Amino acid sequence: MNEALQLARGKGFDLVEVAANAAPPVCRIMDYGKYKYQMGKKSSQRKSTDVKEMKVRPQISEHDLDLKIRNIRRFLDEGDKAKVLMYFRGREIVRPEIGMRVFEKIKNTLPGKFTVEQQPKLEGNHITMVVAPSGK
Q: Are strands 51-56 and 81-87 parallel, antiparallel or unpaired?
């Protein structure tokens, strides 16, 4: 053990114990500061928020809308953003105000701990809205 410690210090590295419960303890010669920096960088990358998509229809029933809102609420509680998409098929595009009413229901029934990053906007044959948790 002392020999390994001297070897590590001679090369300017650290001796890190990998498996303490092994019959002979397993150690590794490495730059521990660099290792901690890389692990911290990796964990910060994992914390990035995802954008989860939820598709709705203009003629959605109340129960189905409640289920979609519950899933959006779950996404927000997990720290992810929710992108709500509504596609119009055929002649449904003639009445986009029906779709806007659905988006108003979604905004009114979600809890107060969220922010609307992108207001509902008609783009071609679909409406999109992005909702994010307010803790961000």
A: parallel
